[in-house]
Amino acid sequence: METLTFKVEIQAPREKVWSVLWEDASYRKWATVFCEGTYAISDWTEGSIIQFLTPNGEGMYSVIEEKIENEYMAFKHLSMMKNFEVLPVDAANQEWVGATESYRLTSSDGITVLKATVDTVDKYVDYFNTTFLKALMIIKELSEE
């Protein structure tokens, strides 16, 4: 597994960027670059389960490992989902178990830096290198509106 890191500077306060990241309507706008119609189901509290889903019920079954309001959110992926059901961990999805994804916001002089990290398997490195940057550009655009 490889950890990829992405950064973007945003001319908006951390609170605005945080709301763009995690409020349902804006989350759907930037996450759609990964798959059209992507959404999340969670109560967004630390320690809670979160499901990252496509409209056909495929996605990741994860836990919010750490949350510091307006500063940091980290997810740990526990399993895959298909047809809205959590799949048992097997050889096909074992490679994703324990993968993490995190978002950190820091700010200085009216600029917020969003740093995202994601663990991925080799076959998805190129995909994430392209797609994650597109997602960050949408987050930047929505935050600077």
Q: Could you describe the 3D structure shown?
A:
This protein is 25% helix and 41% strand. It contains three helices and eight strands, in the order E-H-H-E-E-E-E-E-E-E-H. Strands 1, 2, 3, 4, 5, 6, 7 and 8 form an eight-stranded antiparallel beta sheet that branches. A hairpin with a 7-residue loop joins strand 2 (39-41) and strand 3 (49-53). 21% of the residues are buried.
CATH architecture: 2-Layer Sandwich
CATH uppermost class: Alpha Beta
**Number of discrete helical segments:** 3
- By CATH, the topology is Alpha-D-Glucose-1,6-Bisphosphate, Chain A, domain 4
Radius of gyration: 15 Å
Work out the helicity level: 10-25%
| Average predicted local confidence, pLDDT | 94
The shape, in one word, is globular
For the terminal residues, how far apart are their CA atoms?
A: 36 Å
CATH superfamily: START domain
Low-confidence stretches: none
Number of strands: 8
Organism: Flavobacterium commune
InterPro entries: START-like_dom_sf
Protein name: ATPase
Could you list some keywords that capture this structure?
single chain, 145 residues, alpha+beta, Alpha-D-Glucose-1,6-Bisphosphate, Chain A, domain 4, eight-stranded antiparallel sheet, 3 helices
How are the elements arranged and paired?
Layout: E1 2-10, H1 14-22, H2 24-31, E2 39-41, E3 49-53, E4 59-68, E5 72-82, E6 85-86, E7 100-108, E8 111-120, H3 125-143
Helix pairs in contact: 1-2, 1-3, 2-3
InterPro entries: START-like_dom_sf
Protein name: ATPase
Organism: Flavobacterium commune
